[in-house]
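Worked problem 6 (solution included).
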Amino acid sequence: MTTTKSKPTAEQIDELCNRFDKAKIAVEQAEQKLSGVKGELLAAVQDFGYVPTNAEKTTRLEGALYVADATVASTVAISETAVGELQSELSRFKLPRVFSKLFARKVTHTLQKDAHGALELAIGGFPLEAKKRLLSLFASCFKVDSKTPALTVNLVAALRAKEAAATEKAAKKAARAAKKKRA
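Solution. The predicted structure is:
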């Protein structure tokens, strides 16, 4: 059995549009209120919070029921021109394979984990001036920026359970690594 819909009247369309407009205004007002409260909470966390263990980019403020964390992340912007110049210099010094330890080649370059250490290791025996040039070129390949702090609010009990689980997971991982090392 099919139902046929009839075109709404002008009054029904106006009523739907009016309801939509009121709902949109309510959402905007709620977003403004949320933004204001978030700003107050973020300021309190940043002014009175502490840095938790193993979370150097996070500031925490604890209440009886809730915990608020403000975390500042970083972004890395890669300078493609400088990356190309570093790649050329590494090739000139007969170290073309070192480049892949520093950057992953995609449409753009992505900074590899421990890239600085890999470069220092690779150029350890070079003359001081060559080292300085390569490290300077490497440093010019990217720019580290801070992002806007992210704010999260959790129940204290939930956060403690999450931290306990993470501690247990880390202990198991360390035990597996120790066992593997002994084998």
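Discussion: The first helix runs from residue 10 to 48.
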